[in-house]
Amino acid sequence: MKATSQTEIHSYLQENRIFSPPDAFSANAQISSMEEYRALYDRSIRDPEEFWSQIAEQLHWFRRWENTLVWDPPFAQWFVGGQTNLAYNCLDRHLLTARRNKAALIWEGENGESRTLTYFELHREVCKLANVLTDLGVKHGYRVGIYLPLIPEAVISMLACARIGAVHSVVFGGFSAEALRERMNDAAATVIITADGGWRRGGVIALKQSVDEAATGIPSLRHIIVVKRLDHAAPHSWVEGRDHWWHRLLAVASAQHDAPPLDAEHPLFILYTSGTTGKPKGIVHTTGGYMTQSYLTTKWIFDIRDTDTFWCTAEVGWVTGHSYVVYGPLLNGATTFMYEGAPMHPAPDRWWSLIDRWGINILYTAPTAIRAFMRQGDSYPAKHQLASLRLLGTVGEPINPEAWMWYHQHIGRERCPIVDTWWQTETGAILISPLPGAVPTKPGSATLPFFGIVPDVVNRDGESLPAGEGGFLVLRSPWPAMLRTIHRDAERYAKQYWSDIPGCYFTGDGARRDADGYFWLMGRVDDVINVAGHRLGTAEIESALVSHPQVAEAAVVGRPDELKGTAIAAFVTLEAGTKPSQLLKQELRDHVAHEIGSIARPEDIRFAETLPKTRSGKIMRRLLRDLAAGQETVGDTTTLEDLSVLACLREDEET
Ligand code: PRX
Predict the structure, then answer these.
(1) Domains in the chain and their CATH numbers?
(2) What residues flank ligand 1, with Cβ below 6 Å?
(3) Of 36, 96, 170, 552, which alpha carbon lies 20 to 30 A from 281's?
(4) pTM summary value
(5) In angstroms, rounded to a whole number, what is the distance separating the alpha carbons of residues 327 and 294?
């Protein structure tokens, strides 16, 4: 079947009775029909406190909470008075069950080596690191930076922090030394856990070297723990007393450690994400609510069983890695799988071979990866059985019908449901998604809200819009895994999320609802762009550009890209006397990669005489977006473009 338009896909699904519950696939263990979903959803929003209490009771609490929710808008507290420990729930809770000696974590490195840690073994490693951190003086509430490749030590580090009540802040290994410094400084980290290097596409990323560079600008930093990942480490310095090898510390550490009870609202992690200003926001998540919701969403949306091997392909440096590589699967006693390397590396069918060799049951990835595989052709997945796969998921951006169909046919072999899950770093867990076995999908739509979640599509005044009309996606009531604040900036938290649309949390996304109440995401409506499922602030890239001595002014916009969803396009005005050239373009691209990381490297750079502005001095971004979208014709010129004429013609539209 070769169908690509939405209508064609819908009729194909209907004709083949795909995803019309309950007959099409293994029923969800919990919710098995749309009627059941509707009834439980109604109950969950009528009395969210009762709903979430019942779920939280499935986990271990040292002390039960007194109030399920204290809501002092825009500040929420969940399970107030309760005491728990997330690492205890991920590990110790399983040790008295049949899960004790089953795999908690299976990992394969880019070079083909692998490691499996059972729940028992993972628990021992986490306890050892918990003791090490405590001995290094890390106390309850202290911040610990984690800047590691995708290796088991990243999971051990997160769990050890959660265990002792230290707040972890994972920084994606692809971020630069400067980006690391800025984040660790804001968090005032006392310890950073890193590696002598990491493998990526056959090359080595010099992580420790970046930490060394950043360290001079992080006055709070006392200790650096270094995992030995390479035989021949990239060059880096070593400061006695500050730097410690992981393996030496753990070799002498005790594996006995009692998980202390922590308050439900004890901060669990700070994760930096891009916003609309140049400064990344430290999103703060706390313990009890995050635990409850990451547990339940994994259980119901992925219909997870403890016999499942779950592969979420995200790096732990992103929120997806936090909730669905580490916490969600382990809370459910499943096996989480991690692959260190890049998707096509070292062979274009590496992913499919991993699925067969490890018997992966659930695959959760980003549409951009699916599009990249599609480009490679159908022959690579065809070489593999993929018979263990039961369910597929996507996250990070809307999935286009072509990619959806390819995923469904070539990976899901027309038998696996696909869950398109909408959420954000701030939401902590999935909020809008189909439920396999209950909520039928429509390709390209994240479908219906999860239990207890009240999304709406509204205009600027917060009024709900009728079906079919595009507007702003908001959330009308608090949910357990929601961010609590922005680290050290409660004011920005209130302003950023709760002031644009009266009485609502504003997601920054545009959306519309169809006649069935299904949500269709339409992309960001603020100055955040989503490049290959990674979120970047245009202001952050602009400030990296203007930090170059030859740049006077810069404006960054997103333009549609077949592979990445959105590509970064920069319009740059040069300092007087500087000549535009191809060489300078390349230098500016590299400069941004050095300042932020390669993910922020602009695809296009265009030099302009002046940037088009309205009479009040606002950069005309809409005009730039249009220009960038039509980029092919003019992209490679190195002459200065005069955009002021266009600006005059377009001014009326912008204001
Ligand atoms: O624009 C939405 C998009 O990704 C943004 C959140 O990015 P981040 O905080 O980095 O978290 C990514 C993974 C949770 C959202 O504001 N987004 C996420 N999931 C979807 C999506 N857009 C459409 N459909 C989705 N399923």
Answers:
(1) 532-649 (3.30.300.30)
(2) 273, 319-320, 395-398, 420-425, 446, 507-509, 521, 524, 530, 535
(3) 552
(4) 0.93
(5) 7
